[in-house]
Amino acid sequence: MTMQLDEYLRQFPQAAVAFSGGVDSSYLLYAAKNAGCDVRAYFIKSQFQPRFELSDAKRLADHVGVPLTIGALDALSDPDVVQNPPDRCYYCKIAVLTKLWELVRADGICVLFDGSIADDDESDRPGMRAKSEMGVLSPLRDCGLNKADIRRLSKEAGLFTHDKPSYACLATRIPTGQTITEALLDKVERAEEALFGMGYSNFRVRVIPPDIARLQMPAAQWDIAAANRIEIQKAIQPFFDNVLLDMSER
After folding, report:
1. N or C: which terminus of the chain carries fewer CB neighbours within 10 A?
2. Is it the case that residue 121 has pLDDT exceeding 90?
3. How far apart are CA 94 and CA 100, in angstroms?
């Protein structure tokens, strides 16, 4: 399977990677460099990425030895994104990829990879449609690599991202149809930072209007969260009036 990926990547002497600092795009960046590709990483920073994602991206690019370009995008300048329709991800991805292509082509590169994998369901991801329309290639997906494969290969490669929890953008915390604002995104990010600081992982702080934080976390953390409910409330109530623990399996 890895040999197939190597062969795929060797078709492209020069390429850019749409880089998030997550598990999948990190392994893709490593694999492209390892295959001898002249590769550069491009990270688009908007209001939808938490601060730690950029830190991880810088660390991984430095570890792999690949140049990293950081572009800024005002995701909230697009009314189709702010209004948060069911296909919000499509409009957001179009804006991100437009910015990416602008940066990539300015560097004289004509091939753009992204970290989509075989597990990604195109029918359930409007952003996948945007990638197809924008001419982005997905080597991991095309070579049939799934999340388990990527984690195993990343561990073998010594990448610190091999066990990094999956992390969707902050906009996914806000229910469809509710207007997305910078202030609301900031509240979600700060609430999640507080929980990270308390040792919780692989969770989400989802918004229930008008001002309720609904915590989703793995079942293995429920007992700890319940026992520490007072501390959790104190940590999150500076940002949300009420805090609920969702006991359904995340």
Report:
1. N
2. no
3. 10
The 10 Å Cβ neighbour count of residue 142 is: 15
Closest to 147 measured CA to CA, from 162, 131, 136, 127: 162
Would you call the peptide bond into 210 cis, given omega within 30 degrees of 0 as the criterion?
yes
According to CATH, the superfamily of the domain at 2-163 is HUPs (3.40.50.620)
C-alpha angle 70-31-123 in degrees, rounded to nearest 5? 75
Whether the per-residue pLDDT at 62 is higher than 50: the answer is yes
Token look-up 């329709």 returns: 85
Contact 205, 171 (CB under 8 A): no
Both tokens of 76, joined, read: 């909230």
CATH topology for 181-246? GMP Synthetase; Chain A, domain 3 (3.30.300)
**Residue 22 clears pLDDT 70, i.e. is over it:** yes
**Do the Cβ atoms of 178 and 45 come closer than 8 Å?**
no
Place of tokens 């930072």: 193
Taking the domains of the chain in order of start, what are their residue ranges? 2-163, 181-246
User: How far is C-alpha 69 from the chain's CA centre?
Assistant: 17
> Which is nearest to 154 in space by CA: 244, 47, 21?
21
CB-based contacts of 73: which residues, under 8 Å, 6+ apart?
44, 45, 46, 95, 96, 99
Note the pLDDT of residue 191. Answer: 97
Closest CA to 83 of 8, 169, 181: 181
Residues in the chain: 250
pLDDT tens digits, 66-110? 999 999 999 999 999 999 999 999 999 999 999 999 999 999 999
| Percentage of residues of the chain with pLDDT beyond 90 | 91
Q: In this structure, what is the dihedral angle of CA atoms 218, 219, 225, 226, given to the nearest 10 degrees?
A: 160
